[in-house]
Amino acid sequence: MANPLIKIRQIVRNFELGHETVYVLKGIDLEINKGEYVALMGPSGSGKSTLMNILGCLDTPTSGSYILNNKDVSQMHDDELADIRNKEIGFVFQTFNLLPRTTALNNVALPMIYAGYSKTERSERAAQVLTQVNLADRMDHQPNQLSGGQRQRVAIARALVNKPSIILADEPTGNLDSKTSVEIMKLFGEIHAQGNTVILVTHEEEIAAYANRVIRLRDGMIESDTTK
User: What DSSP element (H or E) covers 130?
Assistant: First the structure.
């Protein structure tokens, strides 16, 4: 059996609010293998956003261990985490998070600057992934010249550009109409079919239905974990 891509053991995350401690994650155990397509679900306050932030190395656990691609990231400092985020994880957010006065091509190339690629390499790779998400004819457009669905495609291309281990999508269709949502989810299906590991955070059953495995959280614990 190959090592899982993600292995978390007894992950606890508490937040101090004044004199009070809020216990958000209460000892989560989870393994995700390379190439899986996973949806994380749960009501507000279930801990799914906190778990996503830990999986995405945006936050560190209070206790427990997190091994990502054979590296123990639960013990890393901010600089090391930033490096892991840039190389191992492609993020897609509900709000797209694009730079407004920058072309689609330059938005997509941005993570490659931090990874130290040359300008030529950046332009070539950014053009390649924009073509992959069907935006070859929109590379020179700025976000305000694009529809919501096209902006999300730019964000997905940016997530793919450094060839990360994981695509982590937080409510990726939250700002889109239902027709565009279906197109974006079809695109995630294609990305998964090409061998990418996709982790999707959603509160919508119809979006979670696209994944092969659904993990439900409640009150900071895993309530169920089902694979199709």
Answer: helix 119-132
